[in-house]
Specification:
The protein folds into 2 domains: 3-156 and 310-344, Quinone Oxidoreductase, Chain A, domain 1 (Alpha-Beta Complex); 159-286, NAD(P)-binding Rossmann-like Domain (Rossmann fold, 3-Layer(aba) Sandwich), CATH 3.40.50.720. The protein is built from 10 helices and 18 strands. It is globular and about 60 Å long. Helix content is 25%, strand content 28%. Strands 3, 5, 6, 9, 10, 17 and 18 form a 7-stranded mixed sheet that branches. A 6-stranded parallel sheet has the order 13-12-11-14-15-16, sandwiched between helices. The chain has helices spanning 41-49, 107-110, 151-154, 157-169, 185-196, 209-217, 244-252, 274-278, 292-304, 324-333, and strands at residues 3-11, 14-21, 29-39, 69-70, 74-82, 94-97, 100-101, 121-122, 134-138, 142-144, 177-181, 201-205, 222-223, 234-239, 254-262, 283-286, 314-319, 340-344. The relative contact order is 0.15. The chain is an alpha/beta fold. The longest helix is centred in the middle third of the chain and has 13 residues, at 157-169.
C-alpha cells in the first residue's frame, strides 16, 4: 500500500478526506494503524474558525509541519512498523498515543515540565494526526494498551489524561469535595477520575439533563444549577466548559482554601473579584493537556482496572469518510446530542 485515506484541514471550513502517501517512520518513530480516533471540540473550532492552533504560514518548530494537516489528537491503534533505533513498542503491539510534542532542550523540558515548553505542540494540530488510516508518532509517546481495554476505549485515554492532570494540578487529596463544571467528555472523565482518586464527594454543574443523568450513573453524588454552586463548598472545582460563566461558577463553588482548576479553552475574560479569592485564600489554577509518563500512564491504568468507564461516553462510531457529515457537522449542529464521536478509519463507509 502506497497511499491511504486521511482527513486534511486545508483552510477555514474545508476538511476533506483525500488519498495521501503512506508515511514512513523516521528514526525514533513508529507507524500506527489507527483503530479509533475521537473528534474533539478543538478539532471543531479549527474546522469552524481556524487555523487557530494549526500553523498556517510558519512551520511548527518541533514538527516542521504546517497546514494542510491531518486532524485528530485522540487516537489508539496498532504498531505496523518501526524506524531506526526503536526497540519498543514493537510491530503488532496495541498502543494509545500521547500526542504532545516538545523541544526537549528548553528550561522547562530540562526540568521535566514539558507541558510548559514554548514550542509545545500536538499531533493532529501541529503535525499529522490520527484521522487517517496510518499515522507516524514518536515511539516514546506510544503507551501499551491493557488487554482489558478495547481499541475505542483506548482512544479516550487522551481526554481522561486531561482530566487526570487537572485533578493533579488541583492537588486533590482523598476525602476532599470535588465539583465539575461542564460535562463534555473531559468533564465526565473528571467525575470518574475524582471518585477513583478517593474524593469524598463529586458534584456537577451542567445545563443538559441528559449529561447530568449520565454523570450520576458514572459516580457523581449530586447536581446543582449554577446559581446554587456556592452551596457545594468544594475543595477542588474543575472547569471544563471554556466559558466565562463556567469559570465564575467554579470559583463560587469553592470553600475556604479551595482550588478552581481551569482547563476549558476560552478567550473571553471572566469576572472574578480579587476579594473573592483573598477571603478564604482560594486559588485559580490553569491546567493544560497532559504528560505522557505521568497523566497519560495514569489514565491508561484507570481504564485498565475498570475504575473509569469510557464506553458510556461514546455516542457515535463512524467511518473516516463521514468525518465531516457524521462528525464535525453533528457537533456543530447538535452539540447536546453527542458526547464523543469516534472515527474508525479501518471501517468501510
Amino acid at each position: 500500500m502506497t497511499t491511504m485515506q486521511a482527513a486534511l484541514l486545508r483552510e477555514f471550513g474545508k476538511l476533506e478526506v483525500e488519498e495521501v502517501p503512506v508515511p514512513e517512520p523516521g528514526p525514533g518513530e513508529v507507524l500506527v494503524r489507527v483503530k479509533a480516533c475521537g473528534i474533539c471540540g478543538t478539532d471543531l473550532e479549527e474546522w469552524l474558525s481556524g487555523p487557530l492552533f494549526i500553523p498556517a504560514a510558519t512551520p511548527h518548530p518541533v514538527t516542521g509541519a504546517r497546514a494542510p494537516l491531518v486532524l485528530g489528537h485522540e487516537f489508539a491503534g496498532e504498531i505496523t512498523a518501526a524506524g531506526d533505533g526503536v526497540t519498543e513498542p514493537s510491530p503488532g503491539q496495541r498502543v494509545a498515543v500521547d500526542t504532545i510534542v516538545y523541544c526537549g532542550t528548553c528550561h522547562w523540558c530540562r526540568r521535566g515540565e514539558v507541558i510548559r515548553c514554548p514550542s509545545l505542540g500536538a499531533l493532529g494540530l501541529h503535525g499529522d494526526g490520527g484521522l487517517a488510516v496510518l499515522c507516524n508518532a514518536p515511539a516514546r509517546m506510544c503507551l501499551p494498551v491493557p488487554d482489558s481495554v478495547a481499541d475505542d476505549e483506548a482512544a479516550l485515554a487522551e481526554p481522561l489524561a486531561v482530566a487526570v492532570r487537572a485533578l493533579r494540578r488541583g492537588g486533590l487529596r482523598p476525602g476532599e469535595r470535588v465539583a465539575v463544571v461542564g460535562l463534555g467528555a473531559v468533564g465526565l472523565m473528571a467525575v470518574q477520575a475524582a471518585a477513583a482518586f478517593g474524593a469524598g464527594s463529586v458534584a456537577v454543574v451542567e445545563p443538559l439533563p441528559e449529561r447530568r443523568a449520565l454523570a450520576m450513573r458514572l459516580g457523581a453524588d449530586r447536581h446543582v444549577p449554577p446559581a446554587d454552586a456556592a452551596a457545594l463548598q468544594a475543595d477542588v472545582a474543575v472547569e471544563c466548559a471554556g466559558s466565562p460563566a463556567a469559570i465564575e461558577t467554579a470559583v463560587r463553588a469553592l470553600r475556604a482554601g479551595g482550588r478552581a482548576v481551569v482547563l476549558g479553552i476560552g478567550t473571553r475574560p471572566a469576572e472574578v473579584a480579587p476579594l473573592d479569592l483573598v477571603i478564604g485564600e482560594k486559588s485559580i489554577i490553569g491546567s493544560l493537556s497532559h504528560v505522557w509518563d505521568e497523566d497519560f500512564r495514569i489514565a491508561l491504568g484507570l481504564l485498565g482496572r475498570g475504575a473509569v468507564q469510557a464506553t458510556p461516553l461514546i455516542t457515535d462510531r463512524i467511518p473516516l469518510s463521514a468525518a465531516v457529515s457524521g462528525g464535525l457537522a453533528l457537533l456543530r449542529d447538535e452539540p447536546g446530542k453527542h458526547v464523543k464521536i469516534l472515527v474508525q478509519p479501518g471501517h468501510p463507509g
